[in-house]
């Protein structure tokens, strides 16, 4: 009977069949009243709290609870006495004793007050903690002018000079592997942790065991390329100055033929020569300059010549240059490993048999030897060094030309250092230098290039140690194989092409920072011209040598080639050079002369010019790497296109109409998208990312499928400062003169038209994306 009374209340909630009469229910109520009385007695207060605390456990069905069966008792009081004595007792009494609501109210009040006190205490602690630990100063924000100033002031001329001399003192072997390891160590010592050495096995064309020679058949006199008489002295035979006076990737062998003066090898020159003589298998005497060497060689090869002697006219050289008796080295490689054209030279790649890149036997010679070949008396040469050289029409000369360079597979090394960006780590700004040279040929430009890059890295890493990081990832690259055709940069870019097409934002070139000391020469793609011009006004140390807003988009030498012509990446370069001696001086930098090791320090003894280049490069790098919106100007591209179409040639009116639409779209893009994005309140992260993606691809539309040898595929770059039109159109017009056909002109016009139209469609699509996004928000 007692068993049923104790459990009556539990089963009442579940409508148990045992409680279906009024008597049992009344008995349960009596028992409840007796329990309340007993619990209110002294000594049972603690039980009441324990029972309430175990309320949840009383309803649990957990198998961990092993409850003892309840035994019958004669009275409820005896049952509770046994329960109190049992130490393992867990109450299954689920109904809370009906007591005064005052206890529950006080418990709730106590919990509320505790929570309130803790909340107030937390607010006070947070307030004082914020005062003691302020947020980082504004100078640590990536896009902050104060940061730029702090970084650039760390770039000092004496540091660049010290790094430069340290590089020159390093003993060099036959290849650049040891030097690459040294540069890697230098960059790591500055704190750049991720610095990689990337090697490729490539086909190189190197000097043979003996120097190339030129022999006059009439007299039997034998000359080395420098003009020196052939000798049997072993020291002379193995002199680097003689061995490295050659054209890399030329055809090999011996050719005996008549010498034909073609001057600069222009279309007019070829028309003139072909009108008076048959040029098949003859040897051309060619001046370097005016247009790319590869382009002129392609014309000579097409005309049927068998060999070419290349020289620089003293009248075209800077007055300060003393190079009349110097031969030089050139490369006939348009870029990369010739055995793997268009793809990387990685293990397992198919190697094509391309030992020669031309059928011509090509040999660079000194102006001194050129004078001997055209029979100018020595005393006349000394009196007037600036007499333009030409072969007399009546004086026919037959010579024998011997080329004996050798091709072999060798390993070249690139050094790639990564400074990871904090906001857009998947967007790369590349700073490119090179450490490749051939036994002093090309001077110490590689050491200047590497020293400036290392000094810039040193200044950046000093700020990184203070907690700063750029928004975008910076890649510091020192390329190998540059002198032989930008081999290292081409192979690395071909290896990572799919990644670089998507991620590279800009390429900043430090190819040869100081080749003269007369004037600063800034070159930039149209979208970066404004940024390059603004950087000059802030960072030019010697104002007299910084003429101001003279930034141009012209073809440049060096490893920027692949990024400009295959990836359509905006690029810029600052360098000091001598004032050009004549309008024919363009492309003389293709010749690599043997230059004394002291030449660079003679040009810039205080290294102030190197400091200027480093700061200009650093300013542009920081702007591109840290600006929330890329500092590219779409309108400048459209203006450059319109300026390149000024002329009376057939088809230009149609091009101007397309160019006008491009300008209208670019103006709309510049005003509707660029200006709001430059307001911090309008910089929604998604909108900024969309805008940057559009800006990053501005120049990709201007890449031609194929361009004539030596000419840029990117039509936004002109041949030189003398020309304002698209180089591909100029070449087509010249080609028309030689072949009396306008098919080449029509094809070139069509390619340019499609490029401009593609750019206009690209700009318009960018505008449509933003309009759709804004409409979606509304």
From TrEMBL:
Region described as Disordered: 57-81
Record-annotated Peptidase M28 domain positions: 414-577
Stretches assigned to coiled coil: none
Claim: Membrane is one of the keywords in the record: yes
Keywords, ordered alphabetically: Membrane, Transmembrane, Transmembrane helix
Pfam families linked to this entry: Peptidase_M28
Transmembrane segments annotated in the record for this chain: 108-129
Family membership: Belongs to the peptidase M28 family. M28B subfamily.
Protein known as: N-acetylated alpha-linked acidic dipeptidase like 2
Database matches in InterPro entries: PA_dom_sf, Peptidase_M28, Peptidase_M28B, TFR-like_dimer_dom_sf
Name of the gene this protein is made from: NAALADL2
